Amino acid sequence: MKTKTSKIFLLSALIFVSISSCNNKNDYKGNVALVDDVAISQDLYSKELKFYQNFYTKMYGENYLDQEVEKGKTNNKVLEKELVDSLIKDQVMLNDLKDKDIKIDDNKASDLRTKLENELGGKDSLKANLTALGLSEKDFNDILFRDSIRKQHYDYFLAHNNIKDSDILKFYKKNQKYQRMYKYNILVFDSKYEADKAKAKIKSASDYKTYLDKLIKNYEVINSKFVYIDDPYLSLAKVKKLDEISEVFEKDGKFMILRVNSYNENENELLINLKDIYLKESYTDYLNKLTKKSKIRLFI
Predict the structure, then answer these.
(1) Cα–Cα distance between 228 and 180 in angstroms, integer?
(2) Quick check: 230 and 177 in contact, CB under 8 A?
(3) Share of residues in the chain with pLDDT > 90 (%)
(4) DSSP character at residue 21
(5) CA R_g for the chain
(6) Taking the mean position of all CA atoms in its chain, how far away is CA 185?
(7) Most buried residue, 25, 93, 173, 188, by most Cβ within 10 Å?
């Protein structure tokens, strides 16, 4: 399971002056880890774990966390491990900001809340979502505050890295993958029989388009944004030519027919998109190096 965890710290634990160094065994009690002698508490871990367990259960069903992703490893086990890893990296970020004398901007959390309210359609919609997840207003504010720390750390990296546009252009020229993007449609059927029946009738791109325009459908339609050739749907479909139509393939228990409907080969646009990818990957490398340099002790 690839968890998307907005890893967070309790507000009281975030203020550096309130976190004491752990210099004896008694200080280790009630903690899941130490990062350069700064404690990550069991209480924080438990609250985060409960939040994400509720989130994934609401999203994917009551049995989702018990499902095995491989022998002996359930989605819940993956979540527990990824949660610890991310909490450690969050503390590494906080320690780095402290070392760089970067003052935490409390207003960033308010900005994130406003953005989220706008995306969900207003304050009432946001509150309804919090209620559905069993999340208190205080804990949600803590989440936003800690998410703002992640953003501030990335913003610090963007302002202080030595990456040049020429570096990105050189990377672009060396990697054919980034020199074209693809957009596609997918017809998604519940049964292979219905998918095979439709595929037998689709002889051309114009035939495929008639399935996109039907008002009454026994299938769903996915319309992609521009993606690279290693997109999971494109990889399964095994097509890349314009107006090429795939054979029926299966993903997540559904049966699909994909058509590539357009390319993007505009170098300026591709370079803008690649710059964002390049910076994020460089930031990941930066954060991983910080983590490796940190003194980390696990108690879980």
Answers:
(1) 7
(2) yes
(3) 63
(4) P
(5) 23
(6) 23
(7) 93
